[in-house]
């Protein structure tokens, strides 16, 4: 793995207006299990911004993921990154045509999903379910195998403490499910029958919803949480949200399967010259023994035939 100085030089020289997206490794069923990372990468696609992915340093100086390096400057927090890019790159602001009222609705909906609904999901998946539907779709944590369970338990404890400090973690499972469904219900009403939240073009809130709806719509197939059940009902009240997610995926994630986590190939067994030579000698010796055995057998057979012939001649002479 390259050193810090080499990595820094690589990030700083990525190219003008090219984003280096720092995030955790890919997921098995979606390009990233973090809704914030998926939101940010989706925005880069919607805005048409060139980007490169770095998974060697997923956590920022603020202890948050994802983060970015842009023209030599580091920035954390997905929303701050998006706002910075909209200021620095001309023509990529997806909210420039929205009314002030629409911008306010977008902000309120985003905060509902990122600071409220996310804790319903995190507490349910990490704490109450202990990663039952998360661990099968995660790439391995960047620690040795024997530490995987220990590190995941530490993450669970951290999520538990944070969710309780935020407030969601103080509720029971049924209450958390109701809170989360109410958030989805509000988002569904705002979307209505429009293709995107504010008309025919996606904006930041569409990227946000895509990231968070992926919790269920691109999660473990056996996930039986109430959120997944309600979102997948054919004629349920969240049908428009499910169709919105599919629309975003089809339009901007043609490389979805390519971006999923792939198991690393197992290295081929290294050749051992000494072992190879030993096997060759054994094979040669075996072949030689076999030839010697065959030769001895032939000699015995010839000797036997010679003795029989001599005995036959002696019998004839006697007669």
Strand and helix map with partners:
Elements: H1 4-12, E1 19-22, H2 35-47, E2 51-54, E3 67-70, E4 73-76, H3 78-88, H4 100-128, H5 148-166, H6 173-191, H7 204-217, H8 226-231, H9 239-252, H10 273-318
Parallel strand pairs: 1-2
Antiparallel strand pairs: 1-3, 3-4
Helix pairs in contact: 2-3, 2-7, 4-5, 4-6, 4-7, 7-9
Would you summarize the structure shown here?
With 319 residues, the protein is mainly alpha-helical. It is built from ten helices and four strands, in the order αβαβββαααααααα.
What does it look like?
There is one protein chain. With 319 residues, this protein is mainly alpha-helical. The protein contains ten helices and four strands; from the N terminus they run H-E-H-E-E-E-H-H-H-H-H-H-H-H. The chain has helices spanning 4-12, 35-47, 78-88, 100-128, 148-166, 173-191, 204-217, 226-231, 239-252, 273-318, and strands at residues 19-22, 51-54, 67-70, 73-76. Strands 2-1-3-4 form a four-stranded mixed beta sheet, covered by helices on one side. The relative contact order is 0.10. The model has no long low-confidence stretch (mean pLDDT 88).
């Amino acid at each position: 793995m390259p050193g810090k100085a080499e990595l820094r030089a690589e990030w700083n020289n990525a190219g003008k207006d090219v984003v280096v997206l720092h995030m955790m490794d890919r997921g098995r069923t979606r390009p990233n299990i973090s809704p914030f990372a998926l939101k940010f990468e989706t925005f880069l696609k919607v805005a048409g911004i060139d980007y490169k992915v770095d998974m060697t340093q997923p956590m920022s100086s603020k202890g948050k993921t994802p983060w970015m390096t842009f023209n030599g400057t580091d920035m954390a927090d997905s929303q701050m990154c998006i706002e910075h890019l909209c200021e620095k790159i001309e023509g990529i602001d997806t909210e420039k045509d929205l009314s002030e009222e629409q911008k306010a609705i977008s902000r309120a909906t985003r905060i509902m999903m990122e600071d409220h609904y996310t804790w319903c999901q995190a507490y349910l998946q990490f704490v109450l379910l202990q990663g039952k539907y998360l661990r099968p779709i995660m790439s391995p944590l960047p620690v040795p195998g024997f530490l995987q369970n220990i590190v995941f338990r530490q993450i669970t404890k951290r999520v538990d403490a944070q969710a309780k400090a935020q407030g969601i973690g103080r509720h029971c499972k049924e209450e958390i499910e109701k809170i989360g469904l109410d958030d989805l219900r509000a988002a569904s009403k705002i979307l209505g029958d429009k293709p995107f939240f504010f008309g025919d073009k996606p904006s930041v809130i569409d990227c946000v919803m895509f990231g968070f709806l992926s919790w269920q719509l691109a999660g473990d197939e056996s996930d039986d949480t109430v959120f997944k059940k309600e979102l997948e009902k054919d004629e349920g009240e969240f049908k428009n949200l499910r169709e919105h997610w599919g629309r975003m995926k089809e339009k901007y994630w043609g490389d979805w399967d390519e971006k999923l986590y792939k198991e690393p190939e197992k290295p081929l067994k290294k050749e051992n010259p000494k072992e190879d030579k030993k096997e060759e000698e054994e094979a040669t010796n075996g072949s030689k023994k076999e030839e010697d055995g065959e030769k001895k057998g032939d000699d015995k057979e010839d000797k036997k035939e010679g003795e029989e012939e001599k005995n036959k001649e002696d019998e004839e002479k006697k007669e």
